[in-house]
Amino acid sequence: MGCDSRKAVLEGFHQAGLQPKVHLEVPYDSLLSYTAAGYGITFIPSIQAQNMTQKGVVFKDIKNNPIRRKIYLLARSQSILELIGQHIL
Hints:
This protein is an all-alpha fold. The protein has one domain. It is built from four helices and no strands. This is DNA-binding transcriptional LysR family regulator. Residues 2-79 form the LysR substrate-binding domain. It holds the Pfam family LysR_substrate. GO terms for molecular function: DNA binding.
């Protein structure tokens, strides 16, 4: 079904009694172009929105946003993860 964000968005629509039609999962720049052309709306992570501009697209922060995103710490070895983990986890 895709990432956690997509699942949360679909769940929100369903809870509101709406049945969204999700047709595409494409790179962010393509999503912006499709949205600018009038092919629906797009949800993107805030970190992406902060670094993007697109003529014909309006960015809006979602109030009371229930969507949370999981992130992971990656390293080449378990010993590096353990060393870093002592300081950030």
